[in-house]
User: Fold these one by one.
Assistant:
Number 1:
Amino acid sequence: MSLILLLTQQMCVYLVIVYLVSKTPLFKLFAETSKRLPHKIFIYLVFSSFCIMATYFGEQTSGAIANTRAMGAVLGGLLGGPVTGLLVGLTGGLHRYSMGGFTDIACAISTSLEGLSAGMISYYFKKAGKSEMVYQPIVVFGVTFMAEIMQMSIIVLVAKPFDQAWELVKLIAPPMLLINSLGAAMFMSIVRDQKAMFDKLSSSFSTKALKIAERSVGLLSKGFDLESSKKVAQIIIEETQVGAVAITDTTKLLAFIGLGADHHIPNTPISSKITLDAIAQNSVMFADGVDTTYSCSISPNCSLGSSLVIPLRSNDEVIGTIKLYEAKNKLFLNINRTLGEGIARLMSNQILYGRFEQQQSLLMQAEIKLLQAQVNPHFLFNALNTISAIIKRDPQMSKQLLQQLSQFLRINLTRTTGLVTMADELEHIDAYLAIERARFIDKLQVNIDIAMIYHHQKMPAFTLQPLIENAVKHGTSRMLDAGVIDVKATLDGDDLLLNVTDNAGLYQPSNNTDGLGMNLVHKRIQNLFGSQYGIEVECEPDVFTRVSVRLPLKEMDQ
Amino acid sequence: MISCLIIDDEPFARQEVADLLDKHPDIKVLGQCSNAIEALQQINLLKPDLIFVDIQMPRINGMELIAMLNPEQMPRAVFITAFDEYAIKAFDNNAFDYLLKPIDEKRFNQTLDKVRTNMTPQPMTQILPTQLAHLPCYSGNKLKVVATADVEFIVSDVGGIHVCSNKGFSHTQLTLKVLEQKTALFRCHKQYLLAPSAISEIEITDTGAEVTTHSGSKVPVSRRYLRELKQLLGFQ
């Protein structure tokens, strides 16, 4: 009975050690199964020393040692695999052998075999995809129990004289079987609990990070300014519960929320050295309030005691910082440090994406502007020539044509890239056609059939007029016979279809600027209204070309 | 007296030139044409000394029109353009006469002075297209343009020059000589031009050979041109 108590005492020493280790980062090594060599060496060292300690602390009993060596060997095997297990067992066994006694050989062999067999079992679980099984205390209990039975058998079989061995086994088997199995199981139970806690912690970390990402998505891509920064800072402080959150660009504070918001005023220049350093060095700065003190540069009464400053980057260039603070009486959590860097990356990406989008849209607008400003020179000079030709013959008409041409050019030069109404487009078309009719007289006939009810329909500026200009330029003006262009507005379900049909049938898909112009109109409509809308071209050579614009028929208040 | 034709697809543009010419009694306007096909016919018919020709015209432009003319009856040409950077550069480089729309009367008069002193047509081969992509044709009274790539063969008879494409026959004002020079068609007979790509079968006959085209027409090949045909097709 006293043997049980003694062994229990030993076991308790181990469990206390394990418990203490479980509070350090080292413990993570127990909780993971890895093939990496450093991990294996760690397992080997820890459990070999367990084995050796077990032998030292063991109780001298009838010329042998009652001990908890099996715990070390079995756990080493289970956590480290067959090779590590064997090595742990061998180390413990050889050490035991060096201590002498009539069971020295039996103990050396059995400890090695214990490590090996536990390793084999761990290997088996791994192969079967059940590696979690080695963390089950009940399994560990069973494995250790069997291992100890094996050890006892070996002692009986190997140790001489047999009688003495038999007597010894009768004495030590029950306590050793019980305590070793129990100890190993409890050890693993601590590992398992700690592992579960760790998983829970990282999952809460991930949840937090995801939540911040989800809540802040799209905010910064619209622009990195006072308003968006304030919203993001609010989200971060709500999700991380830190003392305060600040966001800066490279020169001034954009947002400050939390403790000390009374004297950290947004839209003022950056005052803290640590922030300026982070910007200048493009690196993360951390004043933990212990080794590196943080003291507010504005107010001596500021209650903030630690600060983490992370640069926001756009293509490696610092464009601002995000700062997390804790109060003087609070510890800056490690988790918030990691989270902070993640948030900074998230924000950087969003800002970058926003800038990219903005540039794209600017580029598109510039392209549209450029195309619009490019009045077809042929059209312009021919128009002027027509006016010049009739100026003496019909001054009234030439005056009118000059008015129409001015009107056309004015619309071209001043119209925005936004939405206009059908009536606006028709005005542009009228001015254009007045001139083309004068140029081609009876060789051009344009029939516009668009009911009044559609005159309020909104569409991107320069949707319809360029199509009619194209129909003239690439269609009817190239015909030997008279050209006819029909412009129609029809309903197709909830969509409005605008058809521009010429009787030339000379359409050829091209990469020139006219094609580009049509593509731009198409893209713009799709961007505004969705991919089911846009432009389609249908052509029967020498018979007709029909360009159809599909628009959503509804009030659009953009 | 200098006779001239005005060729432009815009009525007021033609009118403008005619109005400007009113002040020059030594120049007589024979007529106006609204496209290159009409112009080709009128030039062949009226043989003007001078043409005012707009570059930008439907289907066949002013440059192509000049390229289609027989060198013997080439009139002196003054180009007119609204806007054509490349052509203008070429005109300037070669000192060819051209006018910009709207036409400046002073420049118009200077151009006429230059023309009067030298009526010889300027050699323009370097700026003209070497190959004709389209052939101006008539089908009955209707003007049409046949893509050169669609032509199988061209035959000349007492009725004129006939272009046979995969869409049927039509009549053209162009001469066999111009067609031979400015298209990929080759001479296979005194009266025939043949597109090598249209050949489906060749049958050797007493007089040379007979080619069957893809659309089933028969084209004679005289002995004189048979060797060339064989070479063209890679025989011997």
Number 2:
Amino acid sequence: MEQHRLDAFQVIADPSRRQILHLLSKDSLTINSLAENFDMSRPAVSKHIKVLYNAGFISIQDIGRERHCILKQDGFKELQQWLEYFDAFWGSKLKKLEVLLNEKSTKK
Amino acid sequence: MAKIIQHQLFYPNPPQDVWDYLTNAELMAQWLMPNDFIPVLGHEFQFKTKAMPDIDFDGIIYCKILEIDPPQTLSYSWKFGPGDGTLTDSVVSWTLNEKDNGTELQLIHRGFAGSETMTIFTMMDEGWLKNIQKILKLLNTTTNGTTQA
């Protein structure tokens, strides 16, 4: 199955995938126990898990006989990177606005 | 972990002056980015800046005015992407308050990829440490620690 790599925002744009992350935030779960929380087929759940795995939101560990899904920070870091980028962006733009407005108020 | 982008500044200018800089395309270009903004509810416009392929950003921000109430509130959608048609959604909101012979300006930028994104961030904050500890415990008891956490 060739999966186009989605960016972090596209990955979490899907409600089922957010639900998976939410469930995993409470505890690590096997693919089977994750699938029990959804109406969709197990292959459909596996597909979402693969998307989350590819984007670095989860890791999969073989523990005993079972495959466990565990939250991983990498995917979240990509989201955070965007927030930080725009945070710095606005900070510098607003400084520029301050200079312009100061010039305007002293001219009066 | 930041859940929202928020800036609050005070400018020694009346709200109307600050408002002009937020809603006049030429004035906006002086501090923000070149754009084709028109202060009309529902108007769609774009900001253009340099592309940054490193972070999958083609340099165009697609916007639509969602709320405009001069000279107090302004909000617009703020969508960006790598240039392949996929866009990340967010919303920029401005609030102006007259205060001490000047204007208090508040900027809130939120809603990246839908409003629930922030819930995930909250969840990460609350659950992350506990989760990591649980995982470490689980891994330590069942494997020989082949993974570095």
Number 3:
Amino acid sequence: MQHSTNRATAMFAVPGMELSEQGNFSIGTGCYCLHQRVYASLWGRVSFQETGEANSLRIDIQPRTRSQRSTCVPTVGDEVIGKVLKVTWRAVVVEIFAIQEKLLCYTFRGVVRLPDVATTSSDKIDLHNCFRPGDIIRAQVVSLGDPQAYYLSTSRSCDGVIYAMSSADPNQRI
Amino acid sequence: MERRISQRYGPFFEPIHSLEREYQRTRPNNAPRSLVLNTGTVVDAAGSGYVELGKTKVIVAVQGPRPPIRIRGGVENTMNGRITCEVVKSSFCYYSYESTRMANVGRGVSEEERLLSTRLVRVFEPIVILDKYPKCSIDLYVVILEDDGSAFAAMTLATSLALADASIEIISVVSSVTVAISTKQEYLVDPDRTESECAVGLITVSLPLHAAQLCEIQHTGKLSIQVWLSAVQLAVEVAQTIGNSMCQFLLQEMEKNETPSLCS
Amino acid sequence: MYAVSKAEKAYLLDTIETGTRLDGRQLFEYRPISLQVGVLPSASGSSRLRLGETEVLVGVKVEVGDVVESSNDNVQLLFTVECSGSASADFLGREAESWSSELQNALESAYRAANVFDDERLSLVPGKFCWLFKVDILVLDTGGNMMDAISMATRTALSTTLVPRVHIVQSEGSFELEIDDNPDACDTLKVEKAPTFLTFSLIGNHFVLDPSIQEETCARGKLSVAVDANGDICHVYSFGLLDAVELSRLLTIIKKTGKVLLNRLDECVKNGESS
């Protein structure tokens, strides 16, 4: 099924629709390439962005959002926000409920291991002093982990507990 | 599938041969029935689709991608994304008391429902881009509200709508149609229940929008190769028109909701 | 779960592009089949078939059963498919249920469509009693392409099944069945109409017949077609995105190969040899 693409106006896409006839597009989110043609894989609005190279446009599809929550899945490098469920001496178990400030439909399990909590002197940290169950933390996904949980890290300066119950002021850093 | 059902739970008050004599098809042989499409009918689900093909009504809700409820298979399998499906035929969709009793309604999943769910998973496994959803499970919940023939085709259409509505990356929306070969060697597109039961053969074809490929072919009955090929070709043509209508519907829905998105 | 590394997969795809396969076969060639019949003395009919590395054992038990309402068949066929634990751990537990019910459904659908046991001699008391053939299939070893092995073994087991002769005595509206005690008073079944499945795997852009287990793991699609001796299609099972143009080309191959295969099977059973 072919649709003529008009680069000037916005366009909507249905999964399976062909987005380009020429070969000078690069793939962004929501589309895939098959036999030198770009097809859409999400239902939403298509946007074309100029990239640095001449004659090359990047195609992205922004999915149509019906509700306030999104159906994203954490990937490596994402910044996530989660609630602490359990603190043990070597890991903090977290329930991820938002990715990059977007609320999710479904929560995922994540774990911050002791070496990933801070960049320096991990053996001197007592996790029970840093985290408490019920705290909200911001972390970064470092790997897909095991089937039970994603592996997270709070070693960047903007990571850590951002909201805790005993004092209402958010703390930015452990 | 439909033929087999009639063999087991056949109509008790009307023998099949008399049905065939009295029945008149009111539309041309190669015309499908009226199609009603809708998305977003189930508010709680990530995505949902509702399809009416004539009197056949099917609703599909998608939950996911989410961490799987039940871990199945070996350890290697759990790092891949997977699709699960549960099909339920509502208790009021059976057309005679005997067939309701024999189908064990309310006493767990019947074998027919289990076969329908494995078939639906088989259709959509190559369609959903599961690489983007590792460790997640995409759960499809299908309810057949009324079955007047071509229930599987309606299920496939509704599932495509539901997956698009849930913003799950799929290679294409899948359109599907059933063709029945009657005892008079006619090709009847989108048969209803009476035509399906009297048919010599039934072929259901599911295909993505770039119709050079087929997702799935389901076949019942004995057919020679020429008849099979012609039926499949006819089904492919009709499925393409249904696919185009589905695309138009989805594009119109987008234009209707041309408001700024709620999530940034 | 049979695991194949990326290098092996790439090597397999490249060899298939050249038109041959890893074990030297052509694209539409079967592996060597060896067949034994009458291996289970307690069953009415049995066979054990080996297709390459896949091994299947089928036993048929003949019983008299009540007629299921609204069914016009002379004979009821009940298929049960199981995979032994020593063959593969994949098929134990809950996963096995959906796999075996799919295969059972495929066999039932194919045999019903082909109307195999159409024979008038097989009907006992129409509306009351009929023959019930219980076909128990046990997969002993999985080496790829179980569907074909199962269907071939089922057909040969049924063709050597001995059905005892039954005298029907009608007295005062009720029927009594007297089964002949003489072990030689038996009939064999005619299974010329029984279909057999031909399974193709789609690897890269080519279809290959009778995939081995490595080929099945690397395949991105699968097509199983049940054909009978006339080349009529009785059942189709497909998975994955299949090219429509290739399908029509495949069908001529299916018809030809199906006939050849069925003839060979019947010959072997008659001559009592293995091929």
Number 4:
Amino acid sequence: MTKKMQKWLLAPYSVWAFLFMIVPLIFVAYYALTDNDYNFTFENIRKFFVTTSSVTNDAGQISEVHTYILIFLRSLKLAVISTIVCLLLGYPMAYIISQSSPRAQKIFITVIMIPMWMNFLIRTYAWMTILQDTGILNGFLGLLSLRPVHIIGTEGAVVIGMVYDYIPYMIMPIYSVLAKLDPKLTEAARDLGCNSVGVFKRVVLPLSLSGVVSGITMVLIPSISTFYISQKLGNGKFYLIGDAIEGQYVANNLHFAAAIALILMIILLAGMAVMQHFADIERKLEA
Amino acid sequence: MKVWSKIFTALIMLFLFAPILILLVFSFNGSNSLSVFSEPSLFWYRELFKDSETLGSLRNTLILALSASVISTVLGTAAAVGINSLRNKFLKTAIDTTTNIPMVNPDIITGISLMLMFVFVGRLFGASSSLNFGTMLIAHITFCLPYVILQVIPKLKQMDKALPEAAMDLGCTPVGAFFKVVLPDIMPGVITGLLMAFTLSLDDFVISYFTVGNDFQTLPIRIYNMTKKTVTPKMYALATIIFFAILILLIFTNLSDEDANSPSNAKRAERKSRRVENRKVISPKVYLSAAAAVLVAVIILIAALGTGRDTLTLNVYNWGEYISDGSEDSLDTISAFEDWYLEEYGQKVKVNYTTFSSNEDMYSKIRSGAVSFDVIVPSDYMIARMKDEGLLLPLDFGNIPNYENIDEGFKGLYYDENNEYTVPYTYGVIGIIYNANKVDEADVTGWDILWNEKYSGQILQINNPRDAFGIAQYKLGYDVNDTDPELWDAAFDELLAQRPLVKSYVMDEIYNMMESGEADLAAYYAGDYFTMVDAEAEDVDLRFFTPEYTNFFIDAMCIPSCCENKELAEIFINWMLSEEPAVANAEYICYACPNSVVFNSEEYIEDMGEEAIEVLYPGVENFSELYNKTAYKNLDQDALAYMNTLWENLKVN
């Protein structure tokens, strides 16, 4: 195939990407920056930053907080915790898979993908059955004559739901990088006197960093914007940024929903750019 | 080390498969509960195969996933080849960045952004309905594309550049070289991309939620819209079947593909040589199956787009689980209407039946002009709002003679004083549901019990602002329609005071929580109480109490202004009022029915039982007066905005 033909193959995708990836974002900005009559305004953006609520803390003290900033920070916190848990569980899992026989690797990957084929709304529902106070988990603890635990409706339950749904997105990219790692490198490091910890720290980890970065991205992004998991497993008590966008959409405030979406997008893109920048520096240092 | 890693792996697998085990077990539950297992039974499997709506949405989900994954794979593979050959640095960066957009953007933003664009463009062209199967397909292809491209590009980079050149030197045309040499070499990446796209599309809920139209409802949307009614083990049965289907498929492909490529480096050289040998053997098979997949997709696509071309189409938009659907030996209303119409008028009619999860959800869809419907079933206050905004059409009652069966008490109500726009479908009352084994009957006197500290941590509150505020307002004895902010602040203070006592803010989760004894007190609709009683655990005894000052609601059939076949819509409404479907629906939904053909039917009274009739039809003397006083009316935009602000304020606490 000639170079020219190869370039032509790119044409349909370029058109598609422009129409359905770039233009929609322009529409988000357009809606965010207009009012109901499509007149230009900063009001929606301003509303995100200035709306306040009074919050009563456990001690009964009342304080004024910025509603949407608080909601955003809360979502960020839960998403970061979920991402860290996913990384701590997912990295060793990916490593174990990459060390097993080729056939076992294939089976592992298939097995990890299987739950994703069943609707995630249904799977989240099943977690409710497990975690509720009279649920399977506490029934099991009761059989072992252990004290029941209260999980449903806590941050812990929301984190469990997120980790469960998104951990495959952490395992996969890390695994695919680890699997490509040349065993000669680790052997060489060992021959040169590195112990297991040293090999991991100096060879495996730095070389798998790109997988870690994409894993973090793929878990952090969906978990920061989820609204179903927090509704079901958080007992409706955790109002996250996804809930806020969906709530505004349902209340037919499309322009404000777009404003929240725009702000969220800008923050995330900035975060990604910073992370990518550090990853690039790291990579250059390694090289 | 070895042992630890085995234990760790086992724990992760347990974590990943525990919920699947749960839904597997509960799909064989004899009762309709998802948390209390009564006896093993195949009941829900039989139900599933009778439920044409669920099976239809499953078919839709598969059609969508198949078309989206095949199209995005073809488009994405072509794009990957193009990108790989790009030498212009600027262009390459631009394309790479764009490809990353759907991946680094949260689903909710991708969904909203596409929806905004479709609606805007649709309005520009004056389309009555800008969201449909096509827009959903575009959305799915868009978010699948980057995953395909990212799977294919590495394979292209690994490929020996000399291979296609060698092929061309040996007399291949450039196109031939691509299909004979390049494509087989990158095939593993293409197939992984296809599988990933299929999986993502199958599991997607968020993007579909924002881009779904009136003609094509997928499974995740159907499940989400069950929020007012309960999610039954039927869905678990469906998930179980999908699970085993995939398991068998995967085992089969694993067995037939014994020497598939392993990513292990040690065997790379060996593998490479083997693959070169195998290439001639494998490639025709791969082509054949790929071609077959494309063919199937195209046929399904044509079939999906083709239906309704020369038949009439009726788009009905109703609450989730709000029509008799053929399960539990009930009438399959939709297909019964289609049959009846064919017999009566000699013409085929195709009913597209889709569901919504709340009045506001439905309103947003219709208001934005995103979708077009012929018959909708909003609640009273939403009817008033839509009527005021000119979103409803007056009915031609000449086509709806059965309207005379509607009880006089349900005519001339505030939302439709002159009986022009509505035909009441169901009505009901909100009351207190309590577990008599835990709650002292003496305490059950009124709304105050939901603020009783004795039951702290056992109380459920409704997770939607209007109902939650309404309960506080009824408790305080306020008019729920008074827009004075001070009264709303007072109701807000009540809800804030109640918050520490509330176990959970619920919609459909209420069923599980009350049935299993997880919570003891809740406010909910009378009709749904019976669904809970049917599935209550052994040590739970649920009762219903109707407070003196409470909410009556009416849901009515209306025709929105976007309707495309008004006469057909009226014929449908009239048919829905006739005895067979009306009784079947009333029994299925379990809400009270204003149709005298139903509440006078002996069969109906017998089927429902005495207690149900008593609770559902409290025998209010002067219903219309009580109703006009206590029902939710439409609040103006400012009051609604104020309510939403207070609600968000409550939620951030």
